[in-house]
Amino acid sequence: MNNYSVEAIGLNKTFGRRLIFNGINFRMDKNGIFGISGPNGSGKSTLVKIIAGLLSPSKGKIIHKNSNDEIIPEKLHNHIGFASPYLVLYEEFTAWENLDIFSEIRGINFNKDKAKDLLNRFLLYKRRNDLVKTYSSGMKQRMKFIFALMHNPELLIFDEPTSNLDEEGKKSVYNIITDVSKQIIVIIASNEKTDLDLCNEILDLKQFKDF
Amino acid sequence: MLTKAIALFKKDFHSELRTRYAINSLAMFIIVAISVIMFAIGQERISEGLTGGLFWVVIFFTAMSGLSRAFVSEEERGTSLTLQLVAAPSTVFTGKLIFNIILVFCMNTIIALLYAALFESFVINNFGLFLLSFVFGNIGLAISSTIIAAIIAKAGAKGTLYPVLSFPILLPLILSSVQLTLFAIDGTSIETAKFELAIVVSYDVIMLTVSYLLFDFIWKD
């Protein structure tokens, strides 16, 4: 049972004088898939970055709790798995080396069995010893899911998870998202109907544009 | 934290071996800078004081040509976000600092050896003092270069901003290190040079403390 929760209190974000969103409140404490939708420029990526602790909100705050203990920002990265099209892996290393390096930097043992399993599930095992720079954009996107899942996070955040993916890639991503959402919280930010169809609840950012 | 920082250093080291981001520019700069000085001097025999000063001029500009890579390469490749997702800010700074300290020591050892081989007036008479100033000077240079690299990495005109921002911050260190190098060439005792040594050590401690305090704010957003 995952005892993880994420709570947003009065989130507001502005870039200069431009308001991105205002007055966002939510609480996610049950395992499942939560969607964040909205048109282009509505602040989906900004919101997921704020949830992941990669950006600070202009007002309000995000509280991450694990078994009722608040997680300090310096340790938040240990609890979160994040994948998005704008995430870049080290292209001068192979897929296998990337996963090994990230495990070492996280201070955890490199779980070779898990790496093999994920590479197989995302159809990359045969290319594991090739440099990431030789991958197609779809393969790189699948590699980002493996990056997000390797350290057994309690919260998974996917920003536009199926961009650059072919039908086969989308199918493996949807299968994995559905599987892991039984044990942990998964957040998906997307405009794709097929992505949002997976979600138990959806937060539409169009409602949060006014002061 | 240190184990994770060492893992990050190892990543940077292997990455550097494959991409040659910093090594090539540092090596080229050292060769070009020393060659230009030698052409400018010609057959003249320059004084010990001038040699010591020129030694640190080469060190300063070589550092400016390569040390910003620690953060600039992450920003240019778009991997900063990835790094934020796998490590705490203090781990990132420590890993990058270890990388830059080793790079600075390698780079400055090569410069010192080339100077000793090519310039007659670069004769160290108090090697202990030279070693102390070299070690503490290099550590200070690496700390300042690392934190300034983190600051400028997100800016537009990185190449111009780096030496401009570094110069006033590195000035106390460079001036004291030049003085200590002159003392070492003259054969002055460590006891006489303790004021300058104290400045360099204090500089290192202050810059290290300030860097760790500031880095969280620089790294995020």
What would you say this structure looks like, in words?
The complex is a heterodimer of chains A (about 210) and B (about 220). Helix content of chain A is about 30%, strand content about 25%. A five-stranded parallel β-sheet of chain A has the order 6-7-8-3-9, sandwiched between helices. In chain A, strands 2-1-4-5 form a four-stranded antiparallel β-sheet, with helices on one face. Chain A starts with a strand and ends in a 7-residue tail after the last strand. Chain A has a single domain, classed as Rossmann fold, CATH 3.40.50. The mean pLDDT of chain A is about 90. Chain A has about 210 residues and is an alpha/beta fold. Chain A contains six helices and nine strands; from the N terminus they run βββαβββαααβαβαβ. With about 220 residues, chain B is mostly helical. Chain B has one domain (about 1-220). Chain B contains nine helices and no strands. Chain B has helices spanning about 1-20, 25-40, 50-65, 70-75, 80-85, 90-120, 125-150, 160-185, 195-220. The two termini of chain B are about 25 Å apart. The interface of A and B includes residues 88 and 107 of A.
